[in-house]
Design brief:
5-stranded parallel sheet, alpha/beta, 17% strand, 5 strands
Length: 155
C-alpha cells in the first residue's frame, strides 16, 4: 500500500529577526502562504504587525492569513513570558479543544493540503517554547506533514 504524500509545513518565530532576514528565510524555504497563529497580531517590532507584515509579504508574492483562534490565550502568553513553558503548553492544549480552535485547525488543514507551502508564524524564536509547534503537532494528526522550523536572524 502506498504511503500518503507528506506535505512540508514550516514554522517561524520573528523574535531574533529583522524584516529582511525574516522575508529571506521564508523565500529560501519556498513559503507561499504565511499563517499567523498569534492571538494578537500586533507587535512592537517594526514590520511585524498584521497590516505591515501582510504588505511586506505581498511585495514578494507571499500570501498572509491570520488564524486568531489558533493563538495562545492570555494566560498561556503570561506563562510563556514567565518562562513557564510547560504551563503554557498545558493551557494551549486545553484551548485547542475549543470549537473556535478546532474550526481554525480545520481551516489550516485545508490551506496546508491545497498545494502551497505554508508556514506558521509566532513571536518566539525557539520552536520548543512556542505554541506553533503544538499547532503543527495537532495538524499532523489530521494530515501527513513534515515540519521544518525556520530560524531567521540566528547564525
Amino acid at each position: 500500500m502506498r504511503q500518503p504524500r507528506r506535505t512540508t509545513v514550516a514554522t517561524v518565530g520573528y523574535q531574533a529577526a529583522t524584516v529582511d532576514s525574516f522575508v529571506r528565510a521564508l523565500q529560501a524555504a519556498g513559503v507561499e502562504l504565511l499563517v499567523d497563529v498569534r492571538a494578537v497580531a500586533s507587535s512592537r517590532r517594526p514590520g511585524f504587525s498584521k497590516s505591515r507584515l501582510a504588505a511586506n509579504l505581498a511585495d514578494v508574492g507571499i500570501g498572509y492569513v491570520h488564524l486568531r483562534g489558533l493563538g495562545t490565550p492570555a494566560a498561556g502568553r503570561a506563562a510563556a513570558r514567565a518562562g513557564r513553558h510547560a504551563r503554557m503548553r498545558s493551557i494551549f492544549r486545553e484551548h485547542l479543544r475549543t470549537l473556535e480552535a478546532q474550526a481554525e485547525l480545520d481551516q489550516l488543514r485545508e490551506l496546508a493540503s491545497a498545494g502551497r507551502r505554508v508556514c506558521l508564524l509566532c513571536f518566539e524564536a525557539d520552536p520548543q517554547h512556542c505554541h506553533r509547534t503544538l499547532v503543527a503537532e495537532a495538524l499532523a494528526v489530521q494530515l501527513p506533514i513534515e515540519v521544518l522550523h525556520l530560524r531567521p536572524g540566528e547564525p
